[in-house]
Amino acid sequence: WDHLRMRRQNKMFAAAGVRGPIQAPLLGNAPIFMIGESAETMLELTKRLIDKHGKNLQITMFQEYGFLTADPPMIEAILSSQQTITKNNLYGLLQCWLGTGLLLSTGKKWFRRRKIITPTFHFKILEQFVEVFDQQSAIMAEQLYARADGKTVINMFPVACLAALDIIAETSMGVKINAQRSPDFPYVQSVKVVSNMMAERFMHPLQRFDFTMRLFFPLQYRKLMQNIKLMHDFTDKVIEERRHTLQQTLPNTPAAEEEDDVGSKRRMALLDVLLQATVDGRPLSNGDIREEVDTFMFEGHDTTTSAISYTLYLLARHPEQQARAFQEIREVIGDDKSRAVTMRDLGELKYLECVIKESLRLYPPVPMIGRHLTEETTLDGKRFPAKTNIILLTYHAQRDPQYFPEPEKFNPDRYSPENNSSIDVFAYAPFSAGPRNCIGQKFAMLEMKSTVSKMLRHFELLPLGEPVKPVMNLILRSTTGINLGLKPRVY
Ligand code: HEM
Fold first, then answer.
1. CA 172 to ligand 1: nearest atom
2. Where is heme annotated to bind (predicted)?
Protein backbone atom coordinates (compact mmCIF):
# COMPACT_ATOMS: atom_id res chain seq x y z
CA TRP A 1 0.00 0.00 0.00
CA ASP A 2 2.81 2.34 0.98
CA HIS A 3 4.60 1.49 -2.21
CA LEU A 4 1.53 2.39 -4.28
CA ARG A 5 1.06 5.63 -2.36
CA MET A 6 4.71 6.55 -2.92
CA ARG A 7 4.41 5.87 -6.62
CA ARG A 8 1.31 8.00 -6.92
CA GLN A 9 2.94 10.81 -5.00
CA ASN A 10 6.15 10.61 -6.98
CA LYS A 11 4.07 10.92 -10.14
CA MET A 12 2.40 14.01 -8.75
CA PHE A 13 5.74 15.70 -8.10
CA ALA A 14 6.93 14.71 -11.59
CA ALA A 15 3.75 16.13 -13.15
CA ALA A 16 4.37 19.36 -11.26
CA GLY A 17 7.86 19.48 -12.77
CA VAL A 18 9.45 19.30 -9.33
CA ARG A 19 12.67 17.32 -9.36
CA GLY A 20 15.16 16.14 -6.78
CA PRO A 21 18.03 13.75 -6.23
CA ILE A 22 17.53 10.05 -7.05
CA GLN A 23 15.82 8.18 -4.21
CA ALA A 24 17.14 4.98 -2.65
CA PRO A 25 14.57 2.26 -1.93
CA LEU A 26 12.96 2.80 1.54
CA LEU A 27 15.52 5.41 2.58
CA GLY A 28 14.58 7.95 -0.07
CA ASN A 29 17.09 10.82 0.03
CA ALA A 30 18.06 10.30 3.67
CA PRO A 31 21.62 9.13 2.79
CA ILE A 32 22.40 12.51 1.22
CA PHE A 33 21.77 14.17 4.55
CA MET A 34 23.41 11.52 6.69
CA ILE A 35 26.66 10.84 4.88
CA GLY A 36 29.33 13.50 5.12
CA GLU A 37 26.83 16.20 6.06
CA SER A 38 25.90 17.80 9.36
CA ALA A 39 23.95 20.72 10.72
CA GLU A 40 26.91 22.88 9.78
CA THR A 41 26.73 22.04 6.10
CA MET A 42 22.93 22.17 5.73
CA LEU A 43 22.84 25.64 4.16
CA GLU A 44 25.56 24.73 1.66
CA LEU A 45 23.97 21.38 0.88
CA THR A 46 20.58 22.93 0.13
CA LYS A 47 22.29 25.53 -2.05
CA ARG A 48 24.00 22.77 -4.05
CA LEU A 49 20.69 20.96 -4.46
CA ILE A 50 19.00 24.13 -5.74
CA ASP A 51 21.82 24.75 -8.21
CA LYS A 52 21.49 21.21 -9.51
CA HIS A 53 17.74 20.56 -9.50
CA GLY A 54 16.09 23.98 -9.44
CA LYS A 55 14.45 26.26 -6.87
CA ASN A 56 11.62 23.78 -6.27
CA LEU A 57 12.93 20.50 -4.91
CA GLN A 58 11.48 17.17 -3.95
CA ILE A 59 13.26 15.48 -1.05
CA THR A 60 11.99 12.23 0.42
CA MET A 61 13.16 11.11 3.84
CA PHE A 62 12.33 7.47 4.45
CA GLN A 63 8.58 7.43 3.71
CA GLU A 64 7.98 11.14 4.27
CA TYR A 65 7.59 13.60 1.44
CA GLY A 66 9.41 16.85 1.56
CA PHE A 67 9.11 19.82 -0.74
CA LEU A 68 11.77 22.51 -0.47
CA THR A 69 11.39 25.82 -2.24
CA ALA A 70 13.48 28.94 -2.73
CA ASP A 71 11.22 30.18 -5.51
CA PRO A 72 9.48 33.48 -4.60
CA PRO A 73 6.23 32.83 -6.57
CA MET A 74 5.94 29.47 -4.80
CA ILE A 75 6.81 31.06 -1.43
CA GLU A 76 4.06 33.58 -2.12
CA ALA A 77 1.52 30.85 -2.89
CA ILE A 78 2.33 29.06 0.38
CA LEU A 79 2.55 32.05 2.69
CA SER A 80 -0.52 33.84 1.32
CA SER A 81 -2.89 30.95 1.70
CA GLN A 82 -5.06 30.30 4.78
CA GLN A 83 -4.99 26.62 3.77
CA THR A 84 -1.29 26.15 4.37
CA ILE A 85 -0.92 27.47 7.91
CA THR A 86 -0.21 24.11 9.56
CA LYS A 87 3.41 23.85 10.66
CA ASN A 88 5.95 21.27 9.59
CA ASN A 89 6.29 18.21 11.88
CA LEU A 90 9.72 19.47 12.95
CA TYR A 91 8.16 22.26 15.03
CA GLY A 92 6.58 19.57 17.24
CA LEU A 93 9.69 19.26 19.35
CA LEU A 94 9.13 22.73 20.76
CA GLN A 95 5.74 21.71 22.10
CA CYS A 96 6.96 20.46 25.48
CA TRP A 97 8.00 24.04 26.25
CA LEU A 98 5.61 26.21 24.23
CA GLY A 99 2.46 24.08 24.31
CA THR A 100 0.25 25.05 21.41
CA GLY A 101 0.83 28.78 21.73
CA LEU A 102 0.63 31.03 18.69
CA LEU A 103 3.74 29.71 16.97
CA LEU A 104 2.65 26.07 17.02
CA SER A 105 -1.16 26.14 17.05
CA THR A 106 -3.24 25.61 13.96
CA GLY A 107 -6.83 25.81 12.64
CA LYS A 108 -9.45 27.57 14.77
CA LYS A 109 -7.25 27.83 17.82
CA TRP A 110 -4.55 29.69 15.92
CA PHE A 111 -7.12 31.98 14.30
CA ARG A 112 -8.77 32.92 17.62
CA ARG A 113 -5.49 33.42 19.42
CA ARG A 114 -4.03 35.52 16.63
CA LYS A 115 -7.07 37.79 16.87
CA ILE A 116 -6.64 38.24 20.63
CA ILE A 117 -2.88 38.67 20.55
CA THR A 118 -2.69 41.15 17.66
CA PRO A 119 -3.77 44.17 19.80
CA THR A 120 -1.10 43.19 22.33
CA PHE A 121 1.47 44.65 19.93
CA HIS A 122 -0.39 47.94 19.49
CA PHE A 123 1.65 51.10 18.96
CA LYS A 124 0.68 52.46 22.41
CA ILE A 125 1.97 49.33 24.13
CA LEU A 126 5.18 49.23 22.10
CA GLU A 127 5.81 52.87 22.88
CA GLN A 128 6.17 52.08 26.58
CA PHE A 129 8.70 49.37 25.80
CA VAL A 130 11.17 51.79 24.24
CA GLU A 131 12.28 52.74 27.74
CA VAL A 132 13.01 49.08 28.53
CA PHE A 133 14.97 48.66 25.28
CA ASP A 134 16.96 51.75 26.14
CA GLN A 135 17.71 50.83 29.73
CA GLN A 136 18.72 47.27 28.98
CA SER A 137 20.91 48.21 26.04
CA ALA A 138 22.57 50.82 28.26
CA ILE A 139 23.49 48.00 30.67
CA MET A 140 24.90 46.02 27.74
CA ALA A 141 27.08 48.96 26.65
CA GLU A 142 28.19 49.71 30.21
CA GLN A 143 29.34 46.11 30.70
CA LEU A 144 31.20 46.04 27.39
CA TYR A 145 33.51 48.96 28.30
CA ALA A 146 35.69 46.50 30.23
CA ARG A 147 36.51 44.71 26.96
CA ALA A 148 36.58 47.76 24.65
CA ASP A 149 40.35 48.03 24.28
CA GLY A 150 40.47 47.82 20.49
CA LYS A 151 42.20 44.41 20.64
CA THR A 152 39.94 41.96 22.44
CA VAL A 153 37.78 39.77 20.23
CA ILE A 154 34.20 39.76 21.49
CA ASN A 155 31.64 37.18 20.43
CA MET A 156 28.47 39.29 20.43
CA PHE A 157 26.02 36.40 20.50
CA PRO A 158 26.12 35.58 24.25
CA VAL A 159 26.28 39.27 25.14
CA ALA A 160 23.27 40.24 23.03
CA CYS A 161 21.45 37.13 24.25
CA LEU A 162 21.43 38.26 27.89
CA ALA A 163 20.26 41.74 26.92
CA ALA A 164 17.52 40.27 24.72
CA LEU A 165 16.41 38.03 27.59
CA ASP A 166 16.18 40.96 29.96
CA ILE A 167 14.14 42.85 27.39
CA ILE A 168 11.70 40.10 26.56
CA ALA A 169 11.13 39.13 30.23
CA GLU A 170 10.39 42.71 31.25
CA THR A 171 8.13 43.46 28.29
CA SER A 172 6.27 40.17 28.11
CA MET A 173 5.96 39.34 31.82
CA GLY A 174 6.63 42.68 33.50
CA VAL A 175 9.49 41.23 35.60
CA LYS A 176 13.14 42.12 35.73
CA ILE A 177 15.19 38.92 35.62
CA ASN A 178 18.53 40.77 35.56
CA ALA A 179 20.05 38.30 33.12
CA GLN A 180 22.90 40.68 32.29
CA ARG A 181 23.86 41.37 35.88
CA SER A 182 23.11 37.91 37.30
CA PRO A 183 23.41 35.43 34.46
CA ASP A 184 23.24 32.57 36.97
CA PHE A 185 19.62 33.30 37.92
CA PRO A 186 17.90 29.87 37.57
CA TYR A 187 15.21 31.00 35.10
CA VAL A 188 17.86 32.59 32.84
CA GLN A 189 19.97 29.44 32.99
CA SER A 190 16.97 27.29 32.10
CA VAL A 191 15.99 29.41 29.09
CA LYS A 192 19.55 29.14 27.83
CA VAL A 193 19.88 25.41 28.51
CA VAL A 194 16.54 24.63 26.87
CA SER A 195 17.14 26.88 23.83
CA ASN A 196 20.50 25.21 23.23
CA MET A 197 19.16 21.70 23.77
CA MET A 198 16.25 22.41 21.42
CA ALA A 199 18.69 23.57 18.76
CA GLU A 200 20.59 20.32 19.15
CA ARG A 201 17.41 18.23 19.08
CA PHE A 202 16.42 19.92 15.87
CA MET A 203 19.55 18.67 14.15
CA HIS A 204 19.94 15.26 15.77
CA PRO A 205 17.62 12.59 14.31
CA LEU A 206 17.72 10.43 17.46
CA GLN A 207 16.81 13.34 19.70
CA ARG A 208 13.96 14.51 17.54
CA PHE A 209 11.22 12.35 19.02
CA ASP A 210 10.47 12.14 22.73
CA PHE A 211 10.55 8.36 22.78
CA THR A 212 13.92 8.05 20.98
CA MET A 213 15.46 10.82 23.06
CA ARG A 214 14.22 9.20 26.28
CA LEU A 215 15.62 5.86 25.11
CA PHE A 216 19.02 6.91 23.79
CA PHE A 217 19.70 10.09 25.78
CA PRO A 218 17.90 9.55 29.10
CA LEU A 219 20.05 11.98 31.10
CA GLN A 220 19.74 14.71 28.51
CA TYR A 221 16.02 14.15 28.35
CA ARG A 222 15.67 14.43 32.13
CA LYS A 223 17.73 17.62 32.15
CA LEU A 224 15.53 19.08 29.41
CA MET A 225 12.32 18.24 31.29
CA GLN A 226 13.63 19.60 34.60
CA ASN A 227 14.56 22.91 33.02
CA ILE A 228 11.23 23.16 31.21
CA LYS A 229 9.46 22.55 34.51
CA LEU A 230 11.47 25.29 36.18
CA MET A 231 10.49 27.74 33.45
CA HIS A 232 6.83 26.72 33.54
CA ASP A 233 6.75 27.15 37.34
CA PHE A 234 8.32 30.59 36.99
CA THR A 235 5.83 31.72 34.33
CA ASP A 236 2.90 30.28 36.33
CA LYS A 237 3.95 32.23 39.39
CA VAL A 238 4.31 35.48 37.47
CA ILE A 239 0.90 35.01 35.83
CA GLU A 240 -0.79 34.37 39.18
CA GLU A 241 0.82 37.42 40.72
CA ARG A 242 -0.07 39.68 37.81
CA ARG A 243 -3.65 38.40 37.75
CA HIS A 244 -3.94 39.13 41.45
CA THR A 245 -2.50 42.65 41.06
CA LEU A 246 -4.78 43.36 38.13
CA GLN A 247 -7.84 42.29 40.11
CA GLN A 248 -6.86 44.67 42.90
CA THR A 249 -6.47 47.74 40.70
CA LEU A 250 -9.37 50.06 40.10
CA PRO A 251 -11.48 48.73 37.24
CA ASN A 252 -11.69 52.13 35.60
CA THR A 253 -7.98 52.88 35.54
CA PRO A 254 -6.34 51.94 32.25
CA ALA A 255 -3.32 49.85 33.30
CA ALA A 256 -0.94 51.94 31.24
CA GLU A 257 -1.81 54.92 33.45
CA GLU A 258 -1.45 53.22 36.80
CA GLU A 259 1.14 54.33 39.27
CA ASP A 260 3.20 51.97 41.38
CA ASP A 261 4.35 52.40 45.01
CA VAL A 262 7.03 54.89 44.14
CA GLY A 263 4.71 57.01 42.05
CA SER A 264 6.16 56.19 38.65
CA LYS A 265 3.89 54.96 35.89
CA ARG A 266 3.38 51.23 35.85
CA ARG A 267 4.10 49.74 32.49
CA MET A 268 1.68 47.34 30.87
CA ALA A 269 3.29 44.01 29.97
CA LEU A 270 2.14 41.83 27.07
CA LEU A 271 0.89 39.46 29.74
CA ASP A 272 -1.46 42.09 31.19
CA VAL A 273 -3.13 42.51 27.82
CA LEU A 274 -3.69 38.76 27.68
CA LEU A 275 -5.07 38.75 31.24
CA GLN A 276 -7.66 41.31 30.20
CA ALA A 277 -8.58 39.58 26.94
CA THR A 278 -11.70 37.47 26.62
CA VAL A 279 -12.76 34.86 24.09
CA ASP A 280 -16.53 34.56 23.68
CA GLY A 281 -16.95 36.50 26.91
CA ARG A 282 -14.63 34.27 28.91
CA PRO A 283 -11.13 35.20 30.09
CA LEU A 284 -8.11 33.17 29.03
CA SER A 285 -7.02 30.60 31.64
CA ASN A 286 -3.59 30.72 33.27
CA GLY A 287 -2.62 27.70 31.14
CA ASP A 288 -3.69 29.48 27.93
CA ILE A 289 -1.68 32.52 28.89
CA ARG A 290 1.37 30.55 29.88
CA GLU A 291 1.79 29.01 26.44
CA GLU A 292 1.61 32.44 24.84
CA VAL A 293 4.04 34.03 27.29
CA ASP A 294 6.45 31.11 26.87
CA THR A 295 6.13 31.53 23.10
CA PHE A 296 7.06 35.22 23.37
CA MET A 297 10.00 34.31 25.59
CA PHE A 298 11.28 31.84 23.03
CA GLU A 299 10.45 33.61 19.75
CA GLY A 300 11.33 36.99 21.15
CA HIS A 301 14.88 36.47 22.35
CA ASP A 302 16.94 34.08 20.20
CA THR A 303 15.76 35.73 16.98
CA THR A 304 16.63 39.27 18.06
CA THR A 305 19.93 38.05 19.55
CA SER A 306 20.92 36.64 16.18
CA ALA A 307 19.80 39.79 14.32
CA ILE A 308 21.53 42.25 16.67
CA SER A 309 24.78 40.26 16.63
CA TYR A 310 24.88 39.90 12.86
CA THR A 311 24.02 43.58 12.31
CA LEU A 312 26.85 44.71 14.59
CA TYR A 313 29.18 42.25 12.89
CA LEU A 314 28.34 43.60 9.43
CA LEU A 315 28.80 47.18 10.57
CA ALA A 316 32.17 46.29 12.09
CA ARG A 317 33.26 44.98 8.70
CA HIS A 318 31.81 47.84 6.64
CA PRO A 319 33.31 51.07 8.02
CA GLU A 320 31.69 53.28 5.39
CA GLN A 321 28.19 52.12 6.27
CA GLN A 322 29.07 52.27 9.96
CA ALA A 323 30.15 55.91 9.63
CA ARG A 324 26.93 56.76 7.79
CA ALA A 325 24.76 55.05 10.41
CA PHE A 326 26.63 56.81 13.21
CA GLN A 327 26.29 60.18 11.51
CA GLU A 328 22.54 59.74 11.29
CA ILE A 329 22.33 58.67 14.95
CA ARG A 330 24.29 61.75 15.97
CA GLU A 331 21.98 64.02 13.98
CA VAL A 332 18.83 62.45 15.44
CA ILE A 333 19.85 61.75 19.04
CA GLY A 334 22.62 64.28 19.57
CA ASP A 335 25.96 64.08 21.38
CA ASP A 336 24.80 63.28 24.91
CA LYS A 337 25.56 59.57 25.22
CA SER A 338 23.34 59.22 28.26
CA ARG A 339 20.20 60.66 26.66
CA ALA A 340 17.43 58.06 26.50
CA VAL A 341 16.01 57.48 23.02
CA THR A 342 12.34 57.93 22.24
CA MET A 343 9.98 56.19 19.87
CA ARG A 344 10.20 59.27 17.67
CA ASP A 345 14.02 59.12 17.50
CA LEU A 346 13.84 55.48 16.49
CA GLY A 347 11.35 56.33 13.76
CA GLU A 348 13.80 58.85 12.34
CA LEU A 349 16.71 56.43 12.11
CA LYS A 350 15.90 55.59 8.49
CA TYR A 351 19.36 54.58 7.34
CA LEU A 352 19.82 52.34 10.37
CA GLU A 353 16.58 50.64 9.40
CA CYS A 354 18.03 49.92 5.94
CA VAL A 355 21.15 48.51 7.61
CA ILE A 356 19.08 46.17 9.78
CA LYS A 357 16.93 45.09 6.83
CA GLU A 358 20.02 44.28 4.80
CA SER A 359 21.46 42.32 7.71
CA LEU A 360 18.18 40.35 7.95
CA ARG A 361 18.51 39.60 4.23
CA LEU A 362 22.04 38.24 4.43
CA TYR A 363 21.64 36.58 7.82
CA PRO A 364 17.96 35.92 8.48
CA PRO A 365 17.55 34.72 12.10
CA VAL A 366 14.85 32.32 10.86
CA PRO A 367 16.55 30.99 7.72
CA MET A 368 13.85 28.45 6.88
CA ILE A 369 10.12 28.28 7.52
CA GLY A 370 8.18 25.02 7.66
CA ARG A 371 4.65 24.05 6.69
CA HIS A 372 2.70 20.81 6.36
CA LEU A 373 0.03 20.03 3.79
CA THR A 374 -2.93 18.38 5.50
CA GLU A 375 -4.64 17.67 2.17
CA GLU A 376 -3.86 17.57 -1.54
CA THR A 377 -3.26 21.19 -2.50
CA THR A 378 -2.57 23.25 -5.61
CA LEU A 379 0.17 25.82 -5.16
CA ASP A 380 1.33 28.14 -7.92
CA GLY A 381 -0.45 25.92 -10.44
CA LYS A 382 1.22 22.73 -9.21
CA ARG A 383 -0.60 19.90 -7.42
CA PHE A 384 1.03 18.47 -4.27
CA PRO A 385 0.13 15.35 -2.30
CA ALA A 386 -1.36 15.46 1.20
CA LYS A 387 1.08 15.04 4.11
CA THR A 388 3.90 16.81 2.28
CA ASN A 389 6.31 18.57 4.61
CA ILE A 390 7.28 21.92 3.15
CA ILE A 391 10.40 23.93 3.85
CA LEU A 392 10.66 27.48 2.55
CA LEU A 393 14.32 28.24 2.01
CA THR A 394 14.09 31.95 2.69
CA TYR A 395 17.84 32.15 3.35
CA HIS A 396 18.51 31.13 -0.26
CA ALA A 397 15.66 33.17 -1.76
CA GLN A 398 17.16 36.25 -0.10
CA ARG A 399 20.46 35.56 -1.85
CA ASP A 400 18.97 34.89 -5.27
CA PRO A 401 20.77 37.08 -7.89
CA GLN A 402 17.58 37.26 -9.94
CA TYR A 403 16.00 39.28 -7.12
CA PHE A 404 19.06 40.80 -5.45
CA PRO A 405 21.87 41.89 -7.81
CA GLU A 406 25.27 41.13 -6.30
CA PRO A 407 23.55 39.14 -3.57
CA GLU A 408 26.63 38.65 -1.38
CA LYS A 409 27.24 42.38 -1.15
CA PHE A 410 26.16 44.25 2.00
CA ASN A 411 24.23 47.13 0.49
CA PRO A 412 21.68 48.84 2.80
CA ASP A 413 20.73 51.18 -0.07
CA ARG A 414 18.61 48.39 -1.52
CA TYR A 415 15.97 49.59 0.95
CA SER A 416 16.33 53.33 0.32
CA PRO A 417 13.02 55.07 -0.56
CA GLU A 418 13.97 55.08 -4.29
CA ASN A 419 14.84 51.38 -4.41
CA ASN A 420 12.58 49.84 -1.79
CA SER A 421 9.53 49.39 -4.02
CA SER A 422 11.44 47.04 -6.32
CA ILE A 423 11.97 44.49 -3.52
CA ASP A 424 9.77 41.44 -3.97
CA VAL A 425 8.08 40.84 -0.60
CA PHE A 426 8.18 37.08 -1.02
CA ALA A 427 11.83 36.99 -2.09
CA TYR A 428 12.57 38.96 1.07
CA ALA A 429 10.63 37.52 4.00
CA PRO A 430 12.78 37.50 7.16
CA PHE A 431 9.60 37.91 9.24
CA SER A 432 7.66 35.56 6.99
CA ALA A 433 4.64 37.09 5.22
CA GLY A 434 0.90 36.63 4.86
CA PRO A 435 -1.57 35.72 7.63
CA ARG A 436 1.01 33.82 9.67
CA ASN A 437 3.78 36.37 9.62
CA CYS A 438 5.76 37.43 12.69
CA ILE A 439 3.48 39.16 15.14
CA GLY A 440 6.49 40.68 16.92
CA GLN A 441 7.97 42.33 13.82
CA LYS A 442 7.51 45.96 14.96
CA PHE A 443 8.62 45.12 18.48
CA ALA A 444 11.74 43.47 17.05
CA MET A 445 12.58 46.39 14.75
CA LEU A 446 12.35 48.87 17.65
CA GLU A 447 14.47 46.65 19.89
CA MET A 448 17.12 46.19 17.20
CA LYS A 449 17.27 49.90 16.38
CA SER A 450 17.53 50.71 20.04
CA THR A 451 20.35 48.29 20.85
CA VAL A 452 22.37 48.85 17.66
CA SER A 453 22.14 52.65 17.98
CA LYS A 454 23.20 52.42 21.63
CA MET A 455 26.25 50.39 20.65
CA LEU A 456 27.20 52.86 17.91
CA ARG A 457 26.82 55.83 20.26
CA HIS A 458 29.31 54.27 22.67
CA PHE A 459 31.70 52.32 20.50
CA GLU A 460 33.50 52.15 17.24
CA LEU A 461 32.97 48.62 15.94
CA LEU A 462 36.13 46.93 14.66
CA PRO A 463 36.55 43.97 12.31
CA LEU A 464 38.28 41.61 14.75
CA GLY A 465 38.11 37.85 15.12
CA GLU A 466 37.20 35.03 12.77
CA PRO A 467 34.57 35.65 10.10
CA VAL A 468 31.15 34.13 10.67
CA LYS A 469 30.14 30.67 9.50
CA PRO A 470 26.37 30.77 9.51
CA VAL A 471 24.65 27.66 10.74
CA MET A 472 20.98 26.87 10.98
CA ASN A 473 20.57 25.66 14.51
CA LEU A 474 16.90 26.32 15.20
CA ILE A 475 17.79 29.93 14.47
CA LEU A 476 20.78 31.26 12.54
CA ARG A 477 23.94 31.14 14.64
CA SER A 478 27.59 30.94 13.62
CA THR A 479 29.96 28.07 14.36
CA THR A 480 32.84 30.53 14.72
CA GLY A 481 30.99 33.06 16.88
CA ILE A 482 29.78 36.49 15.71
CA ASN A 483 32.92 38.43 16.42
CA LEU A 484 34.04 42.02 16.55
CA GLY A 485 36.21 44.39 18.53
CA LEU A 486 35.25 47.61 20.31
CA LYS A 487 36.87 50.96 20.96
CA PRO A 488 35.19 53.71 23.00
CA ARG A 489 33.91 56.35 20.59
CA VAL A 490 35.19 59.83 21.25
CA TYR A 491 33.07 62.76 20.05
C1 HEM B 1 14.51 39.83 14.35
C2 HEM B 1 13.64 39.24 15.12
C3 HEM B 1 12.58 38.28 14.64
C4 HEM B 1 12.52 37.55 13.49
C5 HEM B 1 13.51 37.52 12.34
C6 HEM B 1 11.29 36.78 13.54
C7 HEM B 1 10.85 35.94 12.53
C8 HEM B 1 9.66 35.22 12.57
C9 HEM B 1 9.22 34.35 11.52
C10 HEM B 1 9.98 34.04 10.23
C11 HEM B 1 8.02 33.84 11.91
C12 HEM B 1 7.18 32.84 11.14
C13 HEM B 1 7.50 31.46 11.63
C14 HEM B 1 6.69 30.40 10.97
O15 HEM B 1 5.76 30.67 10.21
O16 HEM B 1 6.96 29.25 11.25
C17 HEM B 1 7.70 34.40 13.20
C18 HEM B 1 6.56 34.11 13.92
C19 HEM B 1 6.32 34.59 15.19
N20 HEM B 1 7.08 35.51 15.89
FE21 HEM B 1 8.79 36.37 15.26
N22 HEM B 1 10.65 37.06 14.71
C23 HEM B 1 11.38 37.97 15.41
C24 HEM B 1 11.07 38.53 16.63
C25 HEM B 1 9.95 38.26 17.36
C26 HEM B 1 9.61 38.87 18.62
C27 HEM B 1 10.44 39.94 19.31
C28 HEM B 1 8.44 38.29 19.05
C29 HEM B 1 7.64 38.56 20.29
C30 HEM B 1 7.81 39.51 21.12
C31 HEM B 1 8.04 37.33 18.04
C32 HEM B 1 6.92 36.54 18.12
C33 HEM B 1 6.49 35.70 17.12
C34 HEM B 1 5.29 34.87 17.23
C35 HEM B 1 4.37 34.77 18.43
C36 HEM B 1 5.19 34.17 16.01
C37 HEM B 1 4.09 33.21 15.60
C38 HEM B 1 3.03 33.97 14.83
C39 HEM B 1 1.92 33.10 14.29
O40 HEM B 1 2.15 31.94 13.96
O41 HEM B 1 0.80 33.62 14.17
N42 HEM B 1 8.97 37.34 17.04
N43 HEM B 1 8.72 35.24 13.58
1. 30
2. 438
